[in-house]
DNA sequence: CGTGTTAGG
DNA sequence: CCTATCACG
């Protein structure tokens, strides 16, 4: 079973730029999308309930903003929306589903890059997400968190480490949070397989030549608990789809199911 | 002396689409611009004080909205901004200047097409403008009003006359207002020279094929008092500049000065 | 720099 | 459909 996480930076724009073609090449069985930036009714008709997929949309209340979705080829059940007890998730950031005995969580952390106000939001969110994820980790079933965490963990996860030490997404306490996360028992499959090298990046600014020069950040993660690690297989990052369709590349893992 | 009126529908966009080249072909001595939609400081540097021109900008207070300007090759003096006694004109709709003994008034009437609220504004504006223009008309010096009036006067001034009888810009009372205006003693030079034919249009919707099929409206006027009529010469409408650069075409008159 | 929004035309 | 805006990333 192939599971892909992809921040599409506006599904409508991605569709115009060849989303369909990229998806058929990446060929996932489970697709976790972030930054859909559309209510289902705003999508072109054939994309609201795409043929051959079971789809759950989880849009933000605010139009054109944030929002996640899970697409599965086999039927799935929704376990929860959001990380609050009451199931509220006004920005559509977490969608928790079960498919073929595996729990998948589509995650989209707030970005703090557009000001102190948003950074404060992000940090509040991190505080709540950490204990939530801790509980989930202990399950006996495979649990896979996939999504855009908007944090690069180590200098290997960001091209310009030095100059970004004060940038949201690479602040010391954000890096520490990402570390805690992994230390508590989640495996970071991309890093595990890539080894101790620079990259592989999954996001590139579209200012300047960051993309063609591969000066990016690794902020899209696939994280799994012990049970998931037992069935975890190959990782692939489709840089082309990133460049053509979004500012993020889709990250895919093969699970032995 | 060639005097041109042109609604540029955003000077910054027009510049990107070849404004400079069209202006040098049209070759006016006096240029009256409407819908500049920029504060001078938002324009590319070389356009803030274009070489070889004396320029007065008259922007709206609201960013990216409305705004007029007068460019002259000879020096000009500003007689007034707006039509209120106190010189206020928050939407930058009237700029009154004198150049080489001729008074030119750059006029941009509100559009009512985007709703009742805007239509009410337009009508209030029409009520104030009429007596203002009446006073001006009686001057012994040539007075030329040029601009976008957002009203087509007769069925000859609009392609789809029948289907627009309830459209803002061709409402019976608007047409009557335009008629009063001309009857009080302003000459409509474009109509005078074109004679009793359909068109020539100066604005085309950019929906559908309105432009290539020349299904437009004549809403840009050059109107003059008696003294102006004595020196009024040839009219030209540069349809190409309209199609390439804006949704309006520049309208030019030759004055014997 | 890009994807959305909204007002206005 | 097009030009602007603004929020957000």
TrEMBL record, chains A, B:
EC number(s) recorded for this UniProt protein: 3.1.11.2
Keywords of this entry: Hydrolase, Magnesium, Manganese, Metal-binding
Keyword Oxidoreductase attributed: no
Cofactor details (free text): Probably binds two magnesium or manganese ions per subunit.
Gene Ontology biological-process entries: DNA repair
Transmembrane segments: none
Catalytic machinery residues: 108, 148 (proton donor/acceptor), 248 (proton acceptor)
Molecular-function annotations in GO: double-stranded DNA 3'-5' DNA exonuclease activity; metal ion binding
Site positions for Interaction with DNA substrate: 248
Obligatory cofactor(s): Mg(2+); Mn(2+)
Site feature: Important for catalytic activity: 220
The keyword rRNA processing is assigned to this record: no
InterPro entries listed in its UniProt record: AP_endonuc_1, Endo/exonu/phosph_ase_sf, Endo/exonuclease/phosphatase, ExoIII-like
Positions of the record's site feature: Transition state stabilizer: 150
Record-listed Mg(2+) binding positions: 7, 35, 148, 150, 247-248
Domain Endonuclease/exonuclease/phosphatase: 5-248
The protein's enzyme class: hydrolase
A Pfam family reported for this protein in Swiss-Prot or TrEMBL: Exo_endo_phos
NCBIfam families noted in UniProt: exoDNase_III, xth
PANTHER family, sorted: EXODEOXYRIBONUCLEASE III
Protein name: Exodeoxyribonuclease
